[in-house]
Structure formats: C-alpha cells, structure tokens
Amino acid sequence: MSARQLAQPFYTIPEYLALEAATGMKHEYHDGVVTAMAGGSPKHARVSVRIASTLDSLLKGKPCKPFGSDLKVKAGGKTFYPDVSVLCPPVRYDPLMPEAATNPKVIFDVISDSTEAYDRGEKFGFYRQNLEMTDYILVSSTRVYAEHYTRAAGDKWNLEFLGPGSVLSLPSIDCAMPLEAFYEGMELLADEPPV
After folding, report:
1. What is the pLDDT of residues 72-111, one digit of tens each?
2. How many CB atoms lie within 10 A of CB 191?
3. pLDDT tens, position by position, 168-194
4. Number of helices followed by number of strands (H, E) in the chain
5. Which of helix, strand or coil describes residue 119?
6. Are 100 and 93 contacting, i.e. CB atoms less than 8 angstroms apart?
7. pTM: predicted TM-score of the whole model, two decimal places
8. 49 pLDDT above the threshold of 60
9. In angstroms, rounded to a whole number, what is the distance separating the alpha carbons of residues 70 and 74?
C-alpha cells in the first residue's frame, strides 16, 4: 500500500488514535508525523488474502496465528499495518497504543513498484528493531517471487530469493508452504487494467 503524509505537522499519540477512530482509515505514525495509507491493487489484495489463508490453515492447532492488514504493529517507535503478521504467545501491546502489537514473529509485505524501496529499506529497518521478529518476507504481487529475510543473530539477516517451485520454510512458526500457494486464483485478474 502507498502512503500520503497529512497536512498537520505534528500529532500526539492521543490525537493520532482519535484521528483513526474518527476516520476509520489506517495511518502510519512516527514521532508525531501521521501518514495516510492508500489501498492496493486487486492483485495485491488477492496475494495478501492467500498468504493469510494459507498460514491460517497451516497454523491450525498451533500457538502462533496470522493476522491481516487491520492489525497495527509498532516497531522502533513507528506504527505500521503489515499485509500479514504472525503473532505468537505471549503477545505484547504498546501501553500507549493498546491495539498495536509490538512483538510479531513473522511479517509479510506484498510489494508493488510504488512501495518496494520503502518496504525493503526504511520499513525493514524499523521492523528489525523488534528482536523477537525472526522472518520478514517480501512477496511480489505480479509474479511468483519472494525475498525471505531470516534473522541470524542480533541485527544480522540472511536473504533467500524464492521463485517458481520454491518452498517457503518458516521453522520459527513450524510451517512450510509452496510459494505458488500465494498465487492461486490470480488468473481471475489477468485482465486487470494498469494502475
């Protein structure tokens, strides 16, 4: 999803929470700066729901659970709405933002041309500050492709590139899935108009 900074130069946390409650819209928050989140393409939405539903099926009966893009995550002092997050007990929430989880184990972001650099760079920098996060997966919305970042130690991360025929392995949450599972139903969107 892309973002647009709001005109007001500074928001307190209570003002930010009131803005979200009043508008019903998602906003990122960082040091008083609030950025409105825009919707994604139909392909982005389809891949996101496939990731969440695949994980939901694989994690049935296990302690960790997937959440969609309505879950607010706070990392490094900034709030985000990842496309899919996996939370494991005990889940912790920010005391000033009681709806913002602070310790996701795994985060998926579906990338597009407009968000790819931000997702891979600045956003990942904030996510890495959560020392309990073990995996960050960037998933393409236009082809069978993903980048899987796995925490090695401290702030050292390994990177694996995945393509057709690859299996995404997530030992931290005890599951693995073929990457193609995220793209089921994409043929419905073959004639999607350009964005």
Report:
1. 999 988 999 999 999 999 999 999 988 999 999 999 999 9
2. 6
3. 999 999 999 999 999 988 875 655 444
4. 4, 14
5. helix
6. yes
7. 0.85
8. yes
9. 13
Tell me which amino acid residue 54 is: T
Q: Distance between terminal CA atoms of the chain?
A: 13
Q: Which of 179, 175, 155 is nearest to 166 (CA)?
A: 179
Question: In this structure, what token pair is assigned to residue 47?
Answer: 């891949």
For residues 183 and 44, the answer to whether their CB atoms sit within 8 Å is no
Task: Characterise 193 by phi-psi region: left (phi > 0), alpha (psi -120 to 50), beta (else).
Answer: beta
Using the structure block, give the residue that is written with the tokens 């904030």.
Answer: 126
**Residue 83: burial class (beta carbons within 10 Å; 0-12, 13-18, 19+):** buried
Helices (H), the chain: 13-23, 42-58, 116-118, 124-127
CB neighbours of residue 24 within 10 Å: 6
